[in-house]
Design a protein that fits this description.
The protein is α+β, with helices and mostly antiparallel strands and 488 residues long. Helices cover 32% and strands 23% of the residues.
Length: 488
Amino acid sequence: MNFLPNTSNTSDVFGIRSAKLSQLQINNHDPFRQNCLQTYTSSQAINAYSENSEQQFSVAGRIIAFRDMGKASFIKLLDRDGKIQIYVSQNDVSESVYAEFKKFDIGDIIGITGPLFKTKTGEITVRAKTITLVAKSLRPLPEKWHGLVNDDQIYRQRYLDLIVNQSSRTRALQRTQIIKEIRKFLWNREFIEVETPMLHHIAGGAAAKPFITHMNALNHDFYLRIALELYLKRMLVAGFDRVFEIGRVFRNEGLSRKHNPEFTMIELYQAYTDHFGMMELVKNLILHLAHTVLGSTTITRYDGVQIEFDGEWRQANYSDLIIEALADPNWFLKSREEKLYICQQQNIEVDSNAEDFEVTNAVYSKLVEPNLINPTFVLQLPKELCPLAKLNQNNPQFLDVFELCINGQEIAPAYSEQNDPFIQRQMFEAQIGEDIQNLDNDFLLALEYGMPPAGGMGIGIDRLVVLLTGAESIRDVILFPSLRPEQE
């Protein structure tokens, strides 16, 4: 049965193309084929070119350029690998087929079969012997020279962005390569990949506002996970010494250039090491990604600033960076009220009821982190900032952790993991301020069976892709970022 569109309005492109669709269906031509022969992608065909060969190549893709020269035409097809040129001549395909071909539109998806040849300009081209319309495009692609420039349309209609903007297409492919290489790197270090629940009884493993949902089968509310940590540590208890998970995490918080409510994380845990072991691992992981995906250890940001990964990475204590940023060696000797006054003078927003460590962390977030452009390991954070890490043996006011900061943002926090169940319970119960985490008694029970000493680390995949690809915003590297529903 043919479902013919309403073609009464032919004054616009949609109407004109709908009329073509109707005529095709009336003439018993299927404009939406069930399948199509594709023996080569564009790059595979180009790489297989050999002079004087009559080998037939079947390629398929979307028409993105159309140059009509009368009885012959050149078109460009876009497929998953890129572009390839097609030459269509009335002499090769017959007059009637060529006449139908000339009715094709930019955006139509077609299949082509024919031999390869090289044009006078040296471009490897398919000489079409057969042409098949695979899927009719009823709406025009964005203009060639203007493309998609409206951010809202780019994010809402990412499929169009990926068709017309090569930079977006390249970035999307690089993201998949980055994730692939992360897996390969960890597999080579004998890590195993596991999957843990997305629905949690308790929103634990981080301090964040969760999304809440209801499971009808159990008649119980659950939380979409805000972290992967606590289940992965249960795997350490179970005797799996090197584990990682790449998965979606959900936090019902703000939207910004650096934040999206759902994002992709990798968390990994390695027994019988500590945060210094994680330091070696993350540096070598990022260098591996730079070499294999980018082919260079130097990256260039969207604004032209270059960041170099090769060489020594700075290590600095949290407290020293605070003192350096404020040029005030006595900061930590001051009262909370004095610190609040200094924040007010520095235009640092902080709640007047904030705890002392929260005031200091506001200074870090405003004056320190944004200026850590080259790779920097920030060490010995205050114990209040994370209850899941080991206390420093020399000074238990600080933690054996690091935050790796690059490009003015945190890329990877890592801990020497707390494995003493009694201290862990005390640290959970002693939390104050805004960073209170829910008490997971089942996790504490697991620790009582014994968890080996371990180093653990989390990396926001989206932020890592922003860093490595030089993107301006996290929305540029998430294919379909969170948006307010569009008004009808």
